[in-house]
Amino acid sequence: MTTARIIILFVLAAVAEIGGAWLIWQAVRENRGWLFALLGIVALGAYGFIAALQPDAHFGRVLAAYGGVFVAGSLAWGIVVDGFKPTTWDYVGSGVALLGAAIIIFAPAASSTEG
């Protein structure tokens, strides 16, 4: 259940952060109004709370791993919401970022003698 919880929380965090940033982008760059900005601020706040629910107690590790999810999620958001056409290199970069995230989160616990 822990692996499923980690993945679900990362997906929810990505939707909240990327969605919040997109809403603010729409308000500022596309003149969609202050309601979009307000909703974006709420979504970005929700992102912070969702990230804090991760079972790993180390802020730096959780946010570093989330960075990989953010990279892939941002491209996915662009494809679905904005009709973005990624290049092969976008896909490769997303895969590398997700692999890095998986290594950070799912690697065996370090022994107390390591750095």
UniProtKB/TrEMBL annotation:
Alphabetical list of InterPro entries matching this protein: EmrE-like (IPR037185), UPF0060 (IPR003844)
Keyword annotations of the record: Cell membrane, Membrane, Transmembrane, Transmembrane helix
The UniProt record lists the keyword Transmembrane helix: yes
Membrane topology, as annotated: Multi-pass membrane protein
Predominant location category: membrane
Pfam families: UPF0060 (PF02694)
GO CC annotations on file: plasma membrane
The keyword Transmembrane belongs to this UniProt entry's keyword annotation: yes
Compartment(s) where it occurs, according to its Swiss-Prot or TrEMBL record: Cell membrane
Family: Belongs to the UPF0060 family.
HAMAP family (alphabetical): UPF0060
Identification of the protein by name: Small multidrug resistance family-3 protein
Organism: Microbacterium telephonicum
Organism taxonomic ancestry: Bacteria, Bacillati, Actinomycetota, Actinomycetes, Micrococcales
